[in-house]
Design the sequence.
């Protein structure tokens, strides 16, 4: 079993923000599964359970999750789900925004620091390790002197909104590739 966590902030006022790309990607994966999110028993996250993979191939069980807490408190709900489903950190994929990568670009990796990302910091703290997979969706740096917090909590530009569906689709493909083909092949395909 795999646990795929889309990092973001709950509620409609945050829905279009750069910080919520993780939510958009797991929404796309849920659409591919043909399922909708529902409240988990813990009350701390919304989940979809199912199988991800190409039709006719053996597809592993996957839990898609969106925390009901804010980004900087994501770790608690992720830890609760990992415990409930008995998923080790090596089978967790966090999908999140990344300032140090240009918009429209993806990077996939295993482990590493949090690079100032509060959702990753919370996950590392709650899980006791950073050894989980990351699908990092680039949002780029803020223009001019705009504060980072204001930038990540702002909506995409008009131009970016036109390209966003392609980035979301590509990130969802990367998650499926990680599960089906492993890290090396996925990095070769998406990190170039």
Sequence:
């Amino acid at each position: 079993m795999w646990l795929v966590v889309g990092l973001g902030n709950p509620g409609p006022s945050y829905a279009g923000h750069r910080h919520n790309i993780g939510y958009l990607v797991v929404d796309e994966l849920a659409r591919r599964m043909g399922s909708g999110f529902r409240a988990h028993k813990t009350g701390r996250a919304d989940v979809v359970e199912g199988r991800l993979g190409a039709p006719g191939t053996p597809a592993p069980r996957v839990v898609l999750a969106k925390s009901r807490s804010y980004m900087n408190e994501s770790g608690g709900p992720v830890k609760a789900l990992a415990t409930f489903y008995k998923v080790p950190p090596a089978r967790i994929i966090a999908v999140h925004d990344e300032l140090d990568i240009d918009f429209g670009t993806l990077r996939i990796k295993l482990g590493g620091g949090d690079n100032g990302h509060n959702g990753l910091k919370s996950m590392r703290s709650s899980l006791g390790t950073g050894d989980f997979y990351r699908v990092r969706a680039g949002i780029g740096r803020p223009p001019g002197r705009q504060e980072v917090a204001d930038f990540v909590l702002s909506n995409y530009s008009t131009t970016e909104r036109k390209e966003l569906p392609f980035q979301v689709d590509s990130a969802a493909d990367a998650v499926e590739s990680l599960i089906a083909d492993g890290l090396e092949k996925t990095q070769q395909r998406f990190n170039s």
